[in-house]
Amino acid sequence: MEIVNDRKAAIKKLKLLTFGSKSNVDTFRAKLDEAYKTTFLPNGVECSEYKYGNVACDVLAPEIYSSNRVMLYIHGGSFVGGSRVAYRSFCSSLASKCYCRVVVPEYRLAPAFPYPAANEDIQGVFKSLFTEEQIACSLNADKGSKPQLPEIIIAADSSAASIACSLIFNLRDRYRSCIKNVLLFSPWLDLSNGSKLISTKKISDEVMSGDVLRKSSSVYTYESNTSSPYVSPLLAGDDAIKNFPPVFIQMGEKEILLDDAKAFAKNLIEAGNSCTLDVWPNMMFMFQMADEYLHESHLALDKVGKVVTGYEAGQKTVEIENKPKLECSLRSEA
C-alpha cells in the first residue's frame, strides 16, 4: 500500500520517545509502549525470548539470514523508557533489511536503576552473545577449515548511543575485532554542561529539545558524571576512540543533535577510523520509527541494510547462508 506522508502524525508519535520536565515516568513508559507495540511482526520475522548474561532479550530472526551475522540493538527512550515490546516492529524491519538476527535486551532503566546499570547489563549481554556466536561459528565450520569469526553489529538510537559507545570503549581488541559496524540513529552524544544543547534554555526542533536532554540526563546520572565519555561519547579522547569499529550515523537534517553528530564523526575520522554521516533532507528525530507516516523511513532502512550487507560498498551479491538456528541447543529459554 502506498504511503501518504503525514508529517504532523509522525511528529506526534515520535515525541512519545522523549522524556521532558513535565513527564511522569510510569505514564511515559506506558504511552511509549502502547504507541509502538505491534501484534504482527513484519516480513515473517520470528520472535523468541532468551537470556544473555542474565538479561531477558528478544531474538528476532527473519526467514533468511546470514548464520554468522547478529545485531545487538540497544533501544532508546530517554534512559527512562523503551522496551522490547516497543522496539519489536522496528528491529524486525532491521532484521529483514540486514539479513541477520537482532538481539534486543530488556536492560534496566532509570530512575530506579541509574548509570551505570544499563551499561553493566549491555556489557554482560555482549560477552554472553559473543561467546555463543563463537561456539556457533565453530559448529557450523566445515571439517578441517578454520571457523569464521562472528560478525557482530552494534546498533542504538538516541539516548542509547552513549551506552553503545561505552560498551565499545570497554571492550578488549579480541571483542572489538568482531564488530563489523556500529549503527547510530539520531544519537545523543554530549550531555555535559559544556553542551550548548544543555546550557541553552530554549532550544528545540520539531521533536527534540534541550529540556528533554536535561531532564533525561538528570534522572540517568549525577551532573558530575555527564562529562565522562561513557555518558557523553563526544568528549572521548583519542585513546578511547582509537581502533573504533566503522560507524554509520543516520539522522534527519532538522535535528538539533546534528552538529554534535558532525563533531563526533570528525573526531572518529581524525583518529583514523571510518565514519559515515547519512543526513536525510527535511527529516526529523528518529523519523525511521514513523514508517506508517513517512515514505523516507522505508528508504532509510533500505540504505542501512545495504551498509550492513556490504552492497553499499560495492559488493553486488549478498551471500546468505540460512543454517539451522543453533541458539536453541546452546542456551535455555527464559
What does this molecule look like?
There is one protein chain. The protein has 334 residues and is an alpha/beta fold. Helices cover 37% and strands 15% of the residues. It contains twelve helices and eight strands. The protein has helices spanning 7-14, 25-36, 84-98, 117-140, 160-169, 173-176, 196-199, 210-220, 238-241, 258-270, 295-309, 327-330, and strands at 46-52, 55-61, 69-74, 101-105, 151-157, 179-185, 247-252, 275-280. Strands 1-2-4-3-5-6-7-8 form an eight-stranded mixed sheet, with helices on both faces. Helix 3 links the parallel strand 3 (69-74) and strand 4 (101-105). The radius of gyration is 19 Å and the shape is globular.
SSE arrangement:
Elements (H helix, E strand, L loop, with lengths): L6 H8 L10 H12 L9 E7 L2 E7 L7 E6 L9 H15 L2 E5 L11 H24 L10 E7 L2 H10 L3 H4 L2 E7 L10 H4 L10 H11 L17 H4 L5 E6 L5 H13 L4 E6 L14 H15 L17 H4 L4
Parallel strand pairs: 3-4, 3-5, 5-6, 6-7, 7-8
Antiparallel strand pairs: 1-2, 2-4
Helix pairs in contact: 2-3, 3-11, 4-5
Structure keywords:
12 helices, 37% helix, disordered C terminus
Short overview:
With 334 residues, the protein is α/β, with parallel strands linked by helices. The chain contains twelve helices and eight strands.
What fraction of the residues are assigned to beta strands by DSSP? 15-25%
Question: What's the order of the H and E elements?
Answer: HHEEEHEHEHHEHHHEHEHH
Mean pLDDT: 91
* End-to-end gap: 37 Å
Describe the largest sheet. 8 strands, mixed
Strand elements, count: 8
SS-based class = alpha/beta
> Roughly how much helix do the residues carry, as a percent range?
25-40%
Quaternary structure type = single chain
Order the strands across the largest sheet as they lie in space: 1-2-4-3-5-6-7-8
How many helices? 12
Uncertain stretches of 5 or more adjacent residues:
314-334
Query: Nearest-angstrom radius of gyration?
Result: 19 Å
Shape: globular
